[in-house]
Each structure stands twice: as structure tokens, then as C-alpha cells.
Amino acid sequence: MMLVIQDPKEYIVGRTSIMIDDTGCAYTTRVFKKDTPASVIAEMKEHDADWRRENNNRPLFIFPDDPEYEKYLALIE
Questions:
Q1: How many whole angstroms separate alpha carbon 77 and alpha carbon 69?
Q2: What region, left, alpha or beta, does residue 10 occupy, with left being phi > 0 and alpha being psi -120 to 50 degrees?
Q3: What is the layout of strands, in order, in the sheet containing 12-15?
Q4: Which residues pair with 14 in a beta bridge?
Q5: So what's the pLDDT on residue 40?
Q6: Full DSSP string of 17-65
Q7: Each residue's pLDDT tens digit in the chain (77 positions)?
Q8: N or C terminus of the chain with fewer C-beta within 10 Å?
Q9: What pTM value is reported for the model?
Q10: Could you count the other beta carbons within 10 Å of the beta carbon of residue 77?
Q11: Nearest to 45, CA basis, from 66, 21, 27, 61
């Protein structure tokens, strides 16, 4: 299954540099701004959950409530 998601660009801080998961697959993720409205985050969390189910639990998005949010912010190119 292929998911097509329109990024809400006005709420994205940036995209991380390329990371490698436990299986050796490369990926990037988009990091949301801290002031993103809750309604936008709720909708995008649904897409993120679908993505993770299909892609070895790799994140598509990182949200401000993620415990590793600051780590991902530091990885933005």
C-alpha cells in the first residue's frame, strides 16, 4: 500500500538528514513546529500511525510531544 500525504508545510520546521533504521533502510522524517494546532497534529498522527505500520515503525513525522523531539530538531538539515 502506498500512502500519499500532503505535508502541511506551514507547520513543518524541516526534514531531518538521512537516518538508517535497524534493518539498514535509509529514511528521513519531518519535524512539526511546537505551535502547530492540535487539530493538525491529530490528523497527521493518524497518517503517521498508518505509515509506521507499513514501514517497519519508521516515523514519518515527529511531533512536539515526542520524547526525542529535541534530538530530531538537531538532525534537521
A1: 15
A2: alpha
A3: 12-15, 30-32, 61-62
A4: 31
A5: 95
A6: PPEE-TTS-EE--EEE-TT--HHHHHHHHHHHHHHHHHTTT--SEE-TT
A7: 555 677 889 999 999 999 998 889 999 999 999 999 999 999 999 999 999 999 889 999 999 999 999 999 999 97
A8: N
A9: 0.86
A10: 8
A11: 61
Cβ neighbourhood burial of 32 (10 Å; 0-12, 13-18, 19+): buried
Q: Which amino acid is at 31?
A: V
In total, the chain counts a number of residues equal to 77
- Give the amino acid at 4: V
User: Cell triple for residue 77?
Assistant: 538539515
Q: Classify 70 as helix, strand or coil.
A: helix
> Would you state the cell numbers that stand for residue 37, as one nine-digit string?
494546532
